[in-house]
């Protein structure tokens, strides 16, 4: 355990190594018994990777065919709704402008097998990011997937996912730019030009991973982000930006559970000095689960916590912020009426105004024609 004797007043620098450590397959084996059951496809099969990196949003015919057969016992050719996502279909005048999708027959079969092994419903993500910005395109408006085509549509529609593939180390590069030249990870005498090239470095094919996590009906009120700076738990924040009155009453027990879990299970084992970890506490408070690890730096979402609370001098007697009763959980406060709802995270990525919710598929077709003229 590192002990802070001097306040560290600068926002931590994220290194490429920190980012790599937070990649799902790097922490999952170690914390398997403390997190949601998951399956990892690493590397992502070449055909699927090609498909995800291709421009345009087109579902390969194989996917819909297989999915239709799976659900109805009929082929997609009999289903007049198949191919709608493609917009105008393959035999109209615009078909030549849509890039041909690779054959994903094997990928689809593998995804279906994994979905089955995980109980029939999964939450998909890549190394770091889930397609949370694309839920608007899913018929359920969630990331809950029961078929391969739902997974492919979400992954293909997400900027978060495409950033994981095309600019995975962007946060490290950003931090290096804001640091004195020469202090960044593995760099000496670097110029800004050299550094900014890092932001465009794509993820090597061998490092790509598709993660399917067993779908879990998480209560957003019981999700918390814990912040560890230089090996010390500095703060815990509620994640959902809504006020839940019961959290105020439960705060002492939640705090004790989270602090204990962090001190005994996470901090001694996770090989990064400074990070944020998302946690889920069961409603009876009996267990704490890890949802995700994230690097912690200037680009991080600290939610309800100020950077001063993370990097300023700890205001505790032992100076460590390690006890169970010295770091209150930051809870979303009630407004004057005692109740307050806010817009959720990623709400800006929900249904685009161009789409008419009362006629979703027709509107989606229209959008596709617009985006793929
Ligand atoms: N297996 C699951 N089943 C249902 N919901 C889940 C599951 N895993 C995660 N979630 C929900 O999705 C949210 C985002 O998950 P996760 O942190 O893995 O994605 P992310 O892209 O890294 O998000 P962020 O960038 O906000 O950290 C979680 O906070 C949780 O609410």
UniProtKB/TrEMBL annotation:
GO CC annotations, alphabetized: cytoplasm
Disordered: region residues: 65-103
Superkingdom field: Eukaryota
Compositional bias of kind Low complexity: 74-83
Family of this protein: Belongs to the CDC123 family.
Full protein name: Cell division cycle protein 123
Organism of origin: Tieghemiomyces parasiticus
Phylogenetic lineage: Eukaryota, Fungi, Fungi incertae sedis, Zoopagomycota, Kickxellomycotina
């Amino acid at each position: 355990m590192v002990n802070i004797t001097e306040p560290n007043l600068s926002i931590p620098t994220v290194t490429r190594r920190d980012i790599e450590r937070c990649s799902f397959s790097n922490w999952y084996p170690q914390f398997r018994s403390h997190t949601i059951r998951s399956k990892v496809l690493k590397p992502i099969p070449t055909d699927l990777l090609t498909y995800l990196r291709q421009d345009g949003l087109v579902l390969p015919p194989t996917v819909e065919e297989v999915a239709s057969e799976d659900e109805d016992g009929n082929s997609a050719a009999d289903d007049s709704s198949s191919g709608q996502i493609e917009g105008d279909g393959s035999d109209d005048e615009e078909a030549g402008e849509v890039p041909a999708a690779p054959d994903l027959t094997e990928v689809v079969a593998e995804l279906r097998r994994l979905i089955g092994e995980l109980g029939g419903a999964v939450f998909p993500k890549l190394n770091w990011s889930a397609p949370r910005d694309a839920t608007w395109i899913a018929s359920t408006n969630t990331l809950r997937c029961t078929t391969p085509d739902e997974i492919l549509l979400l992954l293909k529609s997400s900027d978060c996912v495409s950033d994981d593939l095309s600019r995975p180390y962007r946060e490290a590069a950003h931090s290096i730019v804001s640091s004195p030249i020469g202090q960044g990870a593995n760099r000496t005498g670097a110029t800004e030009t050299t550094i900014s090239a890092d932001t465009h470095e794509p993820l090597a094919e061998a490092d790509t991973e598709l993660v399917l996590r067993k779908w879990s009906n998480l209560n957003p009120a019981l999700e918390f982000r814990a912040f560890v700076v230089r090996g010390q738990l500095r703060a815990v924040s509620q994640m959902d930006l809504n006020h839940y009155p019961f959290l105020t009453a439960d705060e002492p027990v939640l705090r004790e559970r989270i602090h204990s879990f962090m001190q005994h299970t996470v901090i001694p084992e996770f090989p990064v000095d400074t990070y944020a970890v998302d946690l889920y506490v069961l409603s009876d408070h009996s267990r704490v689960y890890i949802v995700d690890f994230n690097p912690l730096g200037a680009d991080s979402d600290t939610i309800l916590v100020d950077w001063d609370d993370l990097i300023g001098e700890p205001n505790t007697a032992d100076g460590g912020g390690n006890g169970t009763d010295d770091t209150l959980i930051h809870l979303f406060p009630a407004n004057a009426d005692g109740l307050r709802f806010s817009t959720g995270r990623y709400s800006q990525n929900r249904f685009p105004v161009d789409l008419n919710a009362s006629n979703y598929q027709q509107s989606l077709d229209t959008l596709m024609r617009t985006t793929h003229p």
